[in-house]
Amino acid sequence: MIRLLLADDENLIRCALAALLAMEDDIDVVAQAASGDEALAMARLHRPDIAVLDLQMPGADGIAVTDQLRTELPGCASLIVTSHGRPGHLKRALAAGARGFLPKTVSAQVLADVIRTVHRGGRYVDPELAAEAISAGDSPLTPREADVLTLAAGGSPLEEIAKRATPSLGTVRNYLSSATTKLGAANRHEAVHLARSQGWI
Fold it and tell me: Which residue, among 143, 155, 154, has the nearest Cα to 179 in the 3D structure?
């Protein structure tokens, strides 16, 4: 029996998926979570074989949860489902240790088959998302530029970004300027939009 944790902040989707997967003879949904932090708590408590994680959740997102589970519970494989399949998301998910990555548009039967594949030690990446990731190339942003751009995406003033990211307002301006130039954007708002569209932030 495959012990499964389902994490998705959309209750209707999560509960419907749990009901559908519970109909499979070899899958047991042992826990559910509505946030990344709750997913980690449920994983520690129930020790599932596989965690099916929504990419975007309150608190820690699916990629952060995947990274944490790889360290804390290496016996629990992570599979990420998303309605935001950007190339950068896929690459970050795989780098964090995800064993599967697929869109929420797949059927419950396909998801069940992917769960079995991952449980047997295999991997699964949606072919269309994989092709997009390959054609998109790697992010031109450094980790610090991506961090500062992410903070800028939230609408924080430069002074606030400086407090949270670096010791200097000038450094924040330099990171934003560099990121904007690398992305060929006219300003930081356009840079945020372009980076988000590729899943780089």
Answer: 143
Beta bridge partners of 73: none
Specify which residues 4 forms β-bridges with.
29, 50
The dihedral through the CA atoms of 107, 84, 118, 75 has a sign that is negative
Q: What is the largest CA-CA distance in the chain?
A: 59
How many Cβ atoms from other residues are within 10 Å of residue 108's Cβ? Answer: 14
> Which phi and psi angles does 186 have, rounded to 5°?
-80, -30
| CB neighbour list of residue 110: distance below 8 Å, 6 or more residues apart | 102
Percent of the chain whose predicted confidence (pLDDT) is above 90? 50
Domains and CATH numbers, the chain: 2-135 (3.40.50.2300), 143-197 (1.10.10.10)
The CA dihedral of 119, 199, 82, 165, to the nearest 10 degrees, is 90
Q: Which among 60, 54, 106 is positioned nearest to 84, based on CA atoms? A: 54
pLDDT tens track for 90-143: 888 988 999 999 988 899 999 999 999 999 999 999 888 777 766 656 777 787
Identify the CA nearest to 114 among candidates 99, 129, 135: 99
